[in-house]
């Protein structure tokens, strides 16, 4: 038996937890002769956790409390025997300070100062932008399905969370070296296109017949209004309704004119989507709409029939996941309908075809669906059918990544005053406008501040506004609903994007001043400019504030890995926010710019640099750009 994530390598900031767990297991097995059965119970209870308070060290273990009864001994006595044996290992002595026993038998571990300094020095010396964070092994192919707007419907606030969360997860997994496929499962097929094509043929019939006509040839200024007008006609005009149904049949049978109209409508939407994605900095998102999987749907239904998984119910073909009652209804969950009685296919059929393609053609090890939590039961059922049908193999992990609603400040679903869904473009533009307004107000209040050139102020306001929207979303547990408030997300206090951006600007300024001070100090001492300079800085530890900051910086690799494993980006936000607070405490008690001791000044400047780089990497993983000043 091995601990999850166990490693025989030396301890690093990235693997310290599994390394320590392995040392604990080896000590219990070899030095204390604990049985495999007892070890299993210890592992299931958790070998170590992060210390709840700084005075308890860095990590804690209650392994002695868990095993004492099984070994028929007192917990504190067992804790002492265990800690003596563990600390007797030379490899452990290189990583940990002397182990402490607390209370009835808790074991407290504190990382040694020398190990902390060594690991932070590795982060500082790494100049490839990775802060000595290793790439994942084994490397996985990860397909992430996110954003997923619908053709002919403008992106709205409901698409915000999927797009932002999906992009952050893709960035984290990509940073760790996984092979990430970003997919935009666009709603570009279905019965609504019969309605839209009929409307287009009525309002601009010449476009369909025109040679070489494209989206630019269509005089539709507002595609959403176009959709609403078509829907109104469909609901009120029976003749239009009948024509629309016929258009669906023609489209599905490959009629050239219908396909041309469909492509034009899709292209208009893609242009709209692209502009929003550009604002949000979304890159590498490959569109693969429902239409892509349409040719595979008949085969999906046939395979389910061949495997005797689907049954007929009221003319429809269904997969029952729970036993059926005498009247044919499900005794538990609703059946998964894969083909309607009229021969049409369902979203579930498309999703099954997509899973099969992603697992067997894309060769995905993980498939993530960043979709609102209202679809949880749908994905649970579809995943189960896919596994039973062999569309997903045992190797592939299918995961729904659910998220809650965006609420207004009144606690109700976020809408405009008229009750309409908020357009995403309008929401982003308003955030930028308010950020720009704030910058101008601050300029008026601070007459000594350097004036903002219009172009720089506009660029800075754009970064702040968009970062504020992103960070406000990502800093929340994705499964929770959250209240959308411009005033809160644009605030320069608390866990917000402006606070984080200001912290980064401040740290960069401190480091520049410290470096300039050092250069002047060297110049005053008439140092030889041609003398070789060291590429490394010897780090020193002189205060508790330095220690707290260093230890927090070393958690960064594990935080990133934790986001990749658990898919909760807010954990990264929490880490960065706490980092900025710890840096403030460090700077208040540990002078950097004007400290006389050259070695201490160099060390503290290096600590500033590592903090700066961690914030830069962390914000970039959240999809947030930097600003030069605030």
TrEMBL record:
Protein name per its UniProtKB record: arginine--tRNA ligase
Subunit structure: Monomer.
Entry GO MF terms: arginine-tRNA ligase activity; ATP binding
Region named Disordered: 438-457
InterPro entries: aa-tRNA-synth_I_CS, Arg-tRNA-ligase, Arg-tRNA-synth_N, Arg-tRNA-synth_N_sf, ArgRS_core, DALR_anticod-bd, Rossmann-like_a/b/a_fold, tRNAsynth_Ia_anticodon-bd
Family, similarity comment: Belongs to the class-I aminoacyl-tRNA synthetase family.
Signal peptide: none
UniProt keywords, alphabetically: Aminoacyl-tRNA synthetase, ATP-binding, Cytoplasm, Ligase, Nucleotide-binding, Protein biosynthesis
Recorded catalytic activity of this chain's protein: tRNA(Arg) + L-arginine + ATP = L-arginyl-tRNA(Arg) + AMP + diphosphate
An annotated GO BP: arginyl-tRNA aminoacylation
Assigned GO CC terms: cytoplasm
One Pfam assignment: DALR_1
Coiled coil regions in record: none
Compositionally biased region (Basic and acidic residues): 438-447
Domain Arginyl tRNA synthetase N-terminal: 22-111
Localization per Swiss-Prot or TrEMBL: Cytoplasm
Domain DALR anticodon binding: 500-630
EC number from the UniProt entry: 6.1.1.19
């Amino acid at each position: 038996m091995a601990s999850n994530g166990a490693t025989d390598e030396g301890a690093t900031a990235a693997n310290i937890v599994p390394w320590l767990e392995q040392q604990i297991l080896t000590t219990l097995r070899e030095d204390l002769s604990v049985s495999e059965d007892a070890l299993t119970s210890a592992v299931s209870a958790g070998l170590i956790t992060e210390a709840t308070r700084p005075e308890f060290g860095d990590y804690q273990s209650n392994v002695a409390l868990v095993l004492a009864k099984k070994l028929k001994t007192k917990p504190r006595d067992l804790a002492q025997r265990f800690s003596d044996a563990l600390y007797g290992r030379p490899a452990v002595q290189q990583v940990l300070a002397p182990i402490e026993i607390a209370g009835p038998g808790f074991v407290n571990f504190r990382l040694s100062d020398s190990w902390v300094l060594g690991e932070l020095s590795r982060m500082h010396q790494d100049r490839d932008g990775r802060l000595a964070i290793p790439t994942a092994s084994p490397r996985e192919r990860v397909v992430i399905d996110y954003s997923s707007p619908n053709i002919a419907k403008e992106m709205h606030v409901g698409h915000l969370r999927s797009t932002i969360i999906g992009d952050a997860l893709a960035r984290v997994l990509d940073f760790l070296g996984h092979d990430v496929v970003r997919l935009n499962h666009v709603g570009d097929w279905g019965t609504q296109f019969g309605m839209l094509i009929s409307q287009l043929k009525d309002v601009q019939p010449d476009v369909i017949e025109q040679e070489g006509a494209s989206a630019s040839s269509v005089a539709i200024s507002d595609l959403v209004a176009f959709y609403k007008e078509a829907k109104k006609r469909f609901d009120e005009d029976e003749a239009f309704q009948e024509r629309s149904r016929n258009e669906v049949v023609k489209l599905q049978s490959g009629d050239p004119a219908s396909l041309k109209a469909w492509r034009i409508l899709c292209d208009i939407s893609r242009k709209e989507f692209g502009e929003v994605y550009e604002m949000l900095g979304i890159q590498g998102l490959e569109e693969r709409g429902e239409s892509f999987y349409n040719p595979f749907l008949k085969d999906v239904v046939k395979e389910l029939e061949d495997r005797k998984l689907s049954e007929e119910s009221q003319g429809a073909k269904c997969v029952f996941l729970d036993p059926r009652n005498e009247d044919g209804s499900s005794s538990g969950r609703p059946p998964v309908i894969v083909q309607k009685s009229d021969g049409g296919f369902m979203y579930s059929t498309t999703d099954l075809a997509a899973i099969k393609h992603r697992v067997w053609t894309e060769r995905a090890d993980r498939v993530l669906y960043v979709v609102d939590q209202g679809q949880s039961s749908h994905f649970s059922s579809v995943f189960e059918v896919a596994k039973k049908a062999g569309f997903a193999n045992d190797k592939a992990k299918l995961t729904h990544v659910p998220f809650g609603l965006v609420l207004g400040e009144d606690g109700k679903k976020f809408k405009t005053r008229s009750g309409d869904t908020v357009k995403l473009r309008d929401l982003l533009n308003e955030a930028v406008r308010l950020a720009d307004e704030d910058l101008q107000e601050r300029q008026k209040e601070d007459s000594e501040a350097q004036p903002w050139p219009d172009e720089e102020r506009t660029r800075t306001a754009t970064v702040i506004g968009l970062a504020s929207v992103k960070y406000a979303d990502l800093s929340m547990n994705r499964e929770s609903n959250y209240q959308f408030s411009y005033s809160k997300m644009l605030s320069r206090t608390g866990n917000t994007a402006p606070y984080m951006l200001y912290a980064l600007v401040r740290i960069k300024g401190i480091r520049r001043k410290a470096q300039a001070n050092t250069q002047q100090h060297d110049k005053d001492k008439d140092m030889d400019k041609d003398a070789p300079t060291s590429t490394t800085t010897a780090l020193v530890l002189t205060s508790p504030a330095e220690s707290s900051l260093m230890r927090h910086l070393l958690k960064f690799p594990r935080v990133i890995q934790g986001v990749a494993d658990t898919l909760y980006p807010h954990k990264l936000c929490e880490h960065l926010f706490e980092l900025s607070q710890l840096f403030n405490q460090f700077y208040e008690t540990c002078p950097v710019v004007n400290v006389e001791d050259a070695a201490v000044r160099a060390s503290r400047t290096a600590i500033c640099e590592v903090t700066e780089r961690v914030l830069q990497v962390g914000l970039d993983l959240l999809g947030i750009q930097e600003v030069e000043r605030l």
